[in-house]
Amino acid sequence: MAMLSSEPNEAPPAELPRASLILRLAVIGAVIAGIAGLFAYAGGWFTPNALSPASMINTFEKVNGLHPGFRRNHAKGVCISGYFESNGRGVALSRAAVFPAGRVPVIGRFALAGGQPYVTDEAHTVRSMAILFRLPDGEEWRTGMNNIPVFPVRTAQGFRDLLLASAADPATGKPDPAQMKAFLASHPESAKAMPLIGNHPISSGFDNSTYNSLNAFRFINAGGAAVPVRWSMVPVQPFEPISNTDPGKADKNYLFDALIAAIHSHPLQWRLIVTVGQPGDQTSDATTAWPPDRQQIDVGTLTIDRVESEDTSPARDINFDPLVLPDGIAASDDPLLGARSAAYSQSFTRREGEHKEPSAVSTAATKQ
Amino acid sequence: MSTPRAPSQFALQSRILHWLMAAMLLAMLFIGVSMVASLGDYHTLVAIHRPLGIVILILAAVRLANRLLTTLPPFPPTMSHQERFMASSSEKLLYGLMFAMPLVGWGMLSAGHYPIVIFGPVHLPPILPAEPMLYAFLRKTHTILAYLLFLTFLAHLSAVLFHTLIARDRLLDRMALWPIRSRQSKG
Asked: What CA–CA distance (Å, rounded) separates A222 from A210?
């Protein structure tokens, strides 16, 4: 027979003594249990209360209620599209394919911060602009920006604490001031950021708001030189302050309706302004602004000429993960960036598998 | 002399592929389970997970071709018919998962409207249309297959440890990276 090991001259191993057999079985069991245990540990099974993408999104669901099919934050929004026309001045800073002079198509979304998709528009609610630049060779640059000057928290833990501190108390229906006081006491960086956010002038609508990246990134040019940057979309539409008579009470969607009407009457434009940090500028703290004298470079103009309800736009099913970046743009050491990427992914995975309810900002409204 | 006979070990390239991919697959499983639970390191881990998955897909194709073209060492006589059937079945399952995991991952990113970035400007085209429910289904499938792969790996490891420590039939010699002289070749 061809079986090698069945050679008659090869003696079968002697039978193991009972103690040795048990010991060897125990070793096998320990090895397998050890590997399985390490796997479970890596997956966070032994630390169910640790901050994780799932616990972060659970907090949103706890604070806002569960709204299947919608983003867990920035839930109320409308989709837009248009193009970005680069003037070529960004090339010196970044080799990203978005910066050579020319035009790239964009799709995006305007939204209000918060996890309630049918909330009434309020002038003081944080407004966001999310943009996806479709680069010529199939790369993408996704960025989500807010109309506040600095971010209220520095870390994901801070963000979760803030969410819980500002949640409505079920007894009163209002946030508990003691909770907020305790939050600010334990997060001095937030205590410094809040007045900057509160004193920042708010514009009358989405169309004349400035949207800031808040987090720092790195631009890397063709020579491999990296600089820390932040960017802003600065409106070409002139700033107008919010009117004293807030029409929000009359029209739930007044901010969105005004945006839709504006885009229908003429394209809206923003200049993409890149602020270049200096060595020593803090890149890991979104609660602090860089000194105002930092170099600012206008790298091109964003034109938004179409608006579409989430019900029909592909932008509904796009995760505006701030770390979907083209070659030439990279993350900084800001801890919020990775946390945003992870939490957005969790929110995306949950909502994509859920039945979709119509958006508050409906197609009928956007068609006029 | 030169009479053809069954080899005592897997072919050298088979053994190299086996241990290389074992390390990669195990790393991949741990990266995968860590990253979905991590806020801080998620992005860094995903940036390793994606290209490593594609490398595994390429190596799986190389390995399958190699598997079909090489002669295998025989099972040791200590293995019963049922055991041989289990070994062959789990081998097929592992090969299937080596292809399925990266393909489902690639398809899932395609369905989820993500660019499939490998490194720098290098990226892959989508292999499926962008479709929310398809993304959700594939995302779940990716997790389930990962657990199945991990369990199959544990079963495989248990069986090898059993043969090595209890049956002591030198089963592991067949896959050792260094050459093992069979007793027969001395004679």
From this structure: 29
| Structural domain contains residue A60 | no
Length of chain A: 368
B113 interfaces chain A, CB cutoff of 8 Å: yes
Query: Is B150 in contact with A39 (Cβ distance < 8 A)?
Result: yes
Query: In this complex, is the C-beta atom of B160 within 8 Å of any C-beta atom belonging to chain A?
Result: no
State percent of chain A over pLDDT 90.
85
| pLDDT-based confidence at residue A107 (cuts at 50, 70, 90) | very high
CB contact (8 A) between residue B184 and residue A4: yes
Asked, for residue A25, whether it belongs to a domain, the answer is no
Q: Do residues A210 and A339 both lie within one domain?
A: yes
How many domains does the structure of chain B reveal? 1
SS3 B73: coil
Tell me which H or E stretch contains A301: strand A296-308
Residues 6+ apart with CB under 8 A from A106: A81, A82, A83, A84, A131, A132, A133, A134, A302, A304
Q: Which of A171, A199, A227 is where one domain is finished? A: A199
**Enclosing domain of residue A170:** 153-199
Nearest CA in chain B to A6: B77
Using the predicted structure, report yes or no on whether residue B1 has a pLDDT greater than 70.
no
The full DSSP string for B32-60 is HHHHTT-SSSHHHHHHHHHHHHHHHHHHH
- Give yes or no for residue A119 having a pLDDT over 70: yes
CATH code of the domain covering residue A114: 2.40.180.10
Residue B3 inside a domain? The answer is no
- To the nearest whole angstrom, how far is the Cα of B52 from the nearest Cα of chain A? 18
Average pLDDT on A108-117 reads 96
Query: What is the rounded CA–CA span in Å between residue A152 and residue A168?
Result: 18
Cβ contact (<8 Å) for A353 and B133? yes
Q: A283 CA to chain B: closest CA distance, Å?
A: 16
CB contact under 8 A, A24 and B76: no
pLDDT tens-place string over residues B134-175: 999 999 999 999 999 999 999 999 999 999 999 898 889 999
pLDDT of residue B6: 72
To the query of whether residue A74 is one of the catalytic residues in this protein, the response is: yes
Q: Which residues contact A363 (CB under 8 A, 6 or more apart)?
A: A308, A309, A311, A312
Closest Cβ opposite residue B165 in set A27, A53, A331: A27
Please indicate whether, in this complex, the C-beta atoms of A319 and B113 are within 8 angstroms of each other.
yes
Q: Does B76 touch chain A (CB under 8 A)?
A: yes
ipTM for the predicted complex comes to: 0.92
- Give the chain A residue whose CA is nearest to the CA of B132: A352
Closest Cα in chain B to A38: B30
B27-82 per-position pLDDT tens digit? 999 999 999 999 999 999 999 999 999 999 999 999 999 999 999 999 988 889 99
The structural domain count of chain A equals 2
With cut-offs at 50, 70 and 90, classify the pLDDT of residue A261: very high
